């Protein structure tokens, strides 16, 4: 008896706090009076029948309601409002009608600005609330393990630290309006097999690469809900994974909110889902509803499990004081939201090469060409699709309201010859569209190549032989190989830049704003330089290396390094310093940055840490931005959390023995050592 009690105690200790960080406290997470909320939830639970409780745990329809929202039932008897859920990551889903289309998540990841992302989250939250929603199915925070992933455009990048900071910014903003939903938990980085693929992953890779950003978003931004993924992880579907949902998310991290399934087919069995800790099945009851009532009656699922799920649902509703609000069209497509879409697009575009291509003086003649020059190209047609009333194409952006500018357009770029075009600058707009990449099944799925289409390459090469000032503008959701790079003077990665993208592009090209985007992913020279992307097999294995960690480990030079981006000024870094010790919560890297050029611009100072002798050469562990006028200098301080340097083994986090090297610089390929610290 005593030994059984001792075993129980030890096992409770082992699962309760393998992480030395405290679990998230309910009072910190709940924006209302947590104690009062808990009392109210308990009194509801006492008063509700099993049927009423189970009704809280699923949606009511495969397709959205007339307002374009996915509802869960309202309980009139107990005065409990229903959820009204809607996508998504780049604006209110098109099912709700017209809305502001922001640049996609990957573009916003390239801003490296969590505060700007907070404003985006708030703006999208405001619009979906104005359309009657109370749960926003965003942000998408899955690691871009490979640039061919079809939903690359929705997420923020390849790095967990960067992802966590950006996602937390979005959630903090969105939750001033509605409940946000961090998705898809977890290890969801393939489209074509997303419903069936089973991913095997070891503990270190899972906890150090695929989960830290979810934890950060929960602990720092207090997200109200988490959506489980379709794929299986180490056996069960993510929606039925006790390890992911119960052990890690709820027990270890202390997540007090609710877990919602991904849409249709995510949950496979009633008992498996309920036991694992799936709280809400969407968009309608397949394994919950009547099947759950039967499972309780048969003793297959305990009513206590149902109560726990309902408790989380009611707690979240009460803490976030959700309403079933009336639509308010005055809060949709406001001038502020559209101006923000433009500002974000300006901040997101990444100047990758500039041998005299930018900026373009107003007096110069510009020829705009390329397949996408006059195409509204704002992302895929999957669940993140948005229907704006207009999209400023690159050509419109160049010509609109620009009487002083000499802009011409040639649709057939191959007809451009030196004599036909006497333009000073040729801008070629090419890239990917919804036909090339997007969400699986309902959109294009995974991409098949890192190369641009043959016709785009032919156009670039053709134009390059007829002009000595060619700027290639690339649209798309992730990395592109550029065997033609040496033939052109400039390359600007514009991503899918949202409804105001054309204006933003013109602002950058004409020098109204200095480029400040930085790559949130690595651009490899070639597909062979990256880990295998197997979107055919139903069994795949992930390790901890991808993107820059993979390239660094193999000592392979990227085409453009993670974090890279040029601007039209230059920055000089002084000798950096490192302050603090590994016994403290944080250490700090300080470096003075000077704008040595002639244009005001923003610099993103990045700090990477690696343990000497380890096969992880370096990982991003901090970043900060500074805006500097020409000639101005500022010391930028970047804090690094010592907890982020630990590794995960056997259910516990530990700072491994060794010497930790702290490097700082403008991107992962250009760093100076700020100092080293040794863990005994
Ligand atoms: C997607 C989710 C989305 C849901 C509702 C699913 O197919 O994976 O990201 O929120 O549909 O549209």
Query: Which structural class do the helices and strands define?
Result: alpha/beta
**Average pLDDT rating:** 95
Q: What form results from the Cα inertia axes?
A: globular
**Distance, first to last CA:** 41 Å
Low-pLDDT residue spans: 1-19
Largest sheet composition: 6 strands, mixed
Oligomer: single chain
Catalogue the ligands: beta-D-glucopyranose
CATH superfamily name of the domain at 347-542? Glycoside hydrolase family 3 C-terminal domain
Structural write-up:
The protein is α/β, with parallel strands linked by helices and 680 residues long. Among the domains are: 347-542, Glycoside hydrolase family 3 C-terminal domain (Rossmann fold), CATH 3.40.50; 569-679, Sandwich (Immunoglobulin-like). Helices cover 27% and strands 20% of the residues. It has 18 helices and 25 strands. β17 and β18 form a beta hairpin. It starts with a helix and ends with a strand. Mean pLDDT is 95; it is low at 1-19.
């Amino acid at each position: 008896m005593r030994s059984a009690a001792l075993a129980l105690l030890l096992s409770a200790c082992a699962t309760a706090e393998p992480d030395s960080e405290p679990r998230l406290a309910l009072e910190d997470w709940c924006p209302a009076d947590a104690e009062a909320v808990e009392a109210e939830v308990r009194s509801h639970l006492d008063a509700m029948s099993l049927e009423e409780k189970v009704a809280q745990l699923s949606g009511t329809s495969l397709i959205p309601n007339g307002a374009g929202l996915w509802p869960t039932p309202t309980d009139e008897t107990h005065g409990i409002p229903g959820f009204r859920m809607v996508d998504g990551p780049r604006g209110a889903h098109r099912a709700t009608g017209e809305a502001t289309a922001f640049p996609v998540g990957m573009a916003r990841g390239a801003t490296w600005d969590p505060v700007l992302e907070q404003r985006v989250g708030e703006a999208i939250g405001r619009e979906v609330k104005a359309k009657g929603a109370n749960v926003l199915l965003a942000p998408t925070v899955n690691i871009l393990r490979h640039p061919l992933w079809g939903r690359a455009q929705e997420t923020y990048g390849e790095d967990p630290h960067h992802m966590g900071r950006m996602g937390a910014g979005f959630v903090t903003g969105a939750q001033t309006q509605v409940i946000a939903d961090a998705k898809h938990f977890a290890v969801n980085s393939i489209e074509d097999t997303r419903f069936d693929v089973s991913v095997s992953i070891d503990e270190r890779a899972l906890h150090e690469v695929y989960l830290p950003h979810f934890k950060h978003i929960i602990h720092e931004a207090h997200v109200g809900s988490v959506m489980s993924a379709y794929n299986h992880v180490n056996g069960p579907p993510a929606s039925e994974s006790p390890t992911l949902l119960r052990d890690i998310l709820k027990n270890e991290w202390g997540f007090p909110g609710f877990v919602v399934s991904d849409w249709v087919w995510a949950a496979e069995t009633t008992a498996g889902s309920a036991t694992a800790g799936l709280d809400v099945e969407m968009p309608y009851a397949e394994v919950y509803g009547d099947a759950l009532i039967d499972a309780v009656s048969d003793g297959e699922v305990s009513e206590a499990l149902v109560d726990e799920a309902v408790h989380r649902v009611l707690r979240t509703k009460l803490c976030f004081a959700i309403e079933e609000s009336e639509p308010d069209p005055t809060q949709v497509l406001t001038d502020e939201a559209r101006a923000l879409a433009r500002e974000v697009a300006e901040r997101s575009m990444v100047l990758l090469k500039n041998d005299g291509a930018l900026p373009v003086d107003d007096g110069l003649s510009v020829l705009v060409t390329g397949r996408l020059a006059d195409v509204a190209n704002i992302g895929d047609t999957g669940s993140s699709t948005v229907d704006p009333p207009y999209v400023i194409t690159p050509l419109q952006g160049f010509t609109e309201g620009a009487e002083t500018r000499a802009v011409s357009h040639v649709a057939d770029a191959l007809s451009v010859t030196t004599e036909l075009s006497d333009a000073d600058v040729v801008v070629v707009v090419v890239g990917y569209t919804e036909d090339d990449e997007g969400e699986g099944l309902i959109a294009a799925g995974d991409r098949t190549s890192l190369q641009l289409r043959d016709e785009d390459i032919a156009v670039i090469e053709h134009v390059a032989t007829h002009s000595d000032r060619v700027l290639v503008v690339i649209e798309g959701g992730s990395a592109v190989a550029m065997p033609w790079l040496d033939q052109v003077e400039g390359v600007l990665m514009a991503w899918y830049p949202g409804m105001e993208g054309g204006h933003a592009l013109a602002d950058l090209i004409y020098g109204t704003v200095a480029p400040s985007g930085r790559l949130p992913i690595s651009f490899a020279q070639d597909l062979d330089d990256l880990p295998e992307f197997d979107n055919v097999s139903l069994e795949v294995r992930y390790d901890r290396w991808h993107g820059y960690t993979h390239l660094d480990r193999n000592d392979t030079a990227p085409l453009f390094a993670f974090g890279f981006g040029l601007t039209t000024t230059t920055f000089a870094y002084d000798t950096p310093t490192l302050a603090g010790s590994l016994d403290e919560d944080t250490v700090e890297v300080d470096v003075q940055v000077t704008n040595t050029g002639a244009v005001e611009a923003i610099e993103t100072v990045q700090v990477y840490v690696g343990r000497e002798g380890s096969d992880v050469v370096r990982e991003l562990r901090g970043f900060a931005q500074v805006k500097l006028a020409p000639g101005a200098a500022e010391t930028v301080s970047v804090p690094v959390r010592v907890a982020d340097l630990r590794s995960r083994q056997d259910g516990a986090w530990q700072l491994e023995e060794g010497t930790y090297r702290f490097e700082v610089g403008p991107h992962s390929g250009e760093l100076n050592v700020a100092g080293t610290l040794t863990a005994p």
